[in-house]
Amino acid sequence: MDKTERNVAYIDGANLYKGIEDLGWKMDYKRLRIWLTEKYDVEHAYLFLGLIPKYKDLYTELQDAGYKLIFKEVTYDKISKKVKGNCDADIVVRVMKDTYENTFKKAILVSSDGDYASLISFLMEKSKLEVILSPSTSEKCSVLLKRTDAKIAYLDHQKSILENRYRDKNHSH
Questions:
Q1: Global pTM value
Q2: Cα(13)–Cα(143) distance, integer angstroms
Q3: Domain count of the chain?
Q4: 2 belongs to a structural domain
Q5: What DSSP designation does 56 have?
Q6: Which of 124, 133, 87 is CA-nearest to residue 106?
Q7: 71 has which bridge partners?
Q8: Which CATH number fits the domain that encloses residue 12?
Q9: Which of 8, 7, 6, 14 is nearest to 111 (CA)?
Q10: Residue 170's pLDDT band (cuts 50, 70, 90)
């Protein structure tokens, strides 16, 4: 099989987690990975996230579920002590590199962040965008993404398929 026949998902991990959390439910990442393959023919799902040692078990679960994890070194805000691990630039660089190396047929971006609008426009110019999967509602998805006129699908519409129904801490991610 030609290496460009399959699609690739680029997932902004923090944006996905926060968007779904704001909707009041938890993502089943194993189901999401299967759904991406079945619905969008995703061969590789790159999950970009901050590297926090206490979540090593989660990282193992995500790798076992079929994600390729791309870690960003995190920093901590001096005042609030909040973790900062913005992966936007890393995602943009990876998508651009993969586009120029022609390693995929179409890209799927999982994010609601308007910072990706120029990347989306680039992918559309190259006929390399399949869809944006927004973890936010239509009202909360960035207007900058909407202005690109790209196809946007909202993960909340897939809640019945993608929701994690477990409530114990071992399955809450």
A1: 0.90
A2: 20
A3: 1
A4: no
A5: H
A6: 124
A7: 49
A8: 3.40.50.1010
A9: 14
A10: very low
